[in-house]
Structure formats: C-alpha cells, structure tokens
Amino acid sequence: MKKTAIIYSFNAKKSAKIAERIKETFDDDAVEMVNAEDLSEEKFLAYDQIIMGVPTWFDGELPNYWDEFVPALEDLDLKGKKIALFGLGDQEGYPENFLDGVGIMAGILEDCGAELVGFTSVEGYTFERSRARRGDQFLGLAIDYENQGSMNKERIAAWVEQLRKSFE
Fold first, then answer.
1. What share of the chain is helix, strand, coil (3-state, %, to 5)?
2. Alpha helix stretches (DSSP H) within 64-111
3. In Å, how far are 27, 88, 101 from 151, measured between CA atoms?
4. With bands split at pLDDT 50, 70 and 90, how would you rate the model's confidence at 1?
5. Which of the 8 DSSP states describes residue 61?
6. What is the pLDDT of residues 92-112, one digit of tens each?
7. What is the spatial distance between Cα 99 and Cα 60, in angstroms, rounded to a whole number?
8. By CB neighbour count within 10 A (0-12 exposed, 13-18 middle, 19+ buried), where does 136 fall?
9. Which domains occur in the chain, in start order?
10. 3-state class of 67 per DSSP?
C-alpha cells in the first residue's frame, strides 16, 4: 500500500477510538497515525493517501484544530492525493447539521484537487440535513457514537474494505 496516514486529534477521545479501530482493521504497519493538532503542510503532503477524522462541533462547525489548518490547506495542490473522511456527529441531538464537518472539509479538499474516496450510504441514519450528504451518500464514513455505537465495528470494517480497493 502507498504511504498512508490517519490524521485525527489525539486529544479527541471518540475520534481517537474510531481512528485506532480503523488502523486495527487495516492491519497494516504502513498506515501511520498523525496528530492533526501538530500537522504541517509538509507532513500533510508527505502521504499519498490520507484518512482524516473530522468530527462536527457545536452547530455544524469544524473543530478548532482543523479550522486553524484550513488556510494552509487551501494553498496546497492536492492533485493525485486520495483522501477518505470519517466524521463523528449526533443525528438525534443535532439533526439539522449531522456530519457537517465532513461536508465542509470535503468541499475544501475537492477545491484543492484531492480525490475523495470512501463514500457511504445515508441509509440507517435519521437526520434533517447534512452538508456531508451528496445524493444518497455521505462523503465519508458517518459515525454516531452516542446513538449507534453498536454499529461502529461493522461500519468501520465495511468502510476499510472499500478503502483497500480505492487505495490500490
């Protein structure tokens, strides 16, 4: 597999658990864990394939660590990079902006030329709106830790299998 990173905040406990599960499921030592809070442009560009953990904060916002990296990200040429997103959200508590962080980040990455991979079905989720929705799919893996935590393992396994094919 090409040089691959899972980038997420090491301080976000739920994102960290999901990132660790993704790495375990890949079962590949070539997949590196990178702290989003210590990210530089050079580090970001060092990987051919990137998996990004993008939880939605508050009423549909990016977490501070991603929000602070966006100006640098917007100046990067990401053509040739394959990027998959996983996001955490609460479809019952915030149904009007479920997984918006993923949608915001997806737009930025596409504008920079990245190829997004790892879309998943909206089936099985109940929400009003999501910036992460494109047709009948999310622009990444949707995790609702609070309301559907029992489905995480199965969803991650299916998503990682899809990424293996996309990352070939």
1. 40, 20, 40
2. 64-74, 100-111
3. 20, 13, 21
4. low
5. B
6. 999 999 999 999 999 999 999
7. 7
8. exposed
9. 4-166 (3.40.50.360)
10. helix
The rounded mean pLDDT for the chain is 96
Q: Rounded distance, CA 66 to CA 79, Å?
A: 20
Angle formed by the axes of helices 152-166 and 13-26, nearest 10°: 50
pLDDT at residue number 27: 86
Q: How far is CA 50 from CA 1, 63, 72, 115, in A?
A: 12, 18, 16, 10
Q: Count other C-beta atoms under 10 Å from residue 109's C-beta.
A: 22
In sequence order, what are the residues at sequence separation of 6 or more whose Cβ sits closer than 8 angstroms to the Cβ of residue 132? 85, 87, 98, 99, 100, 101, 102, 103, 106, 138, 139, 140, 142
Rounded Cα distance, 32 and 83, in Å = 14
Q: What is the pTM assigned to this prediction? A: 0.96
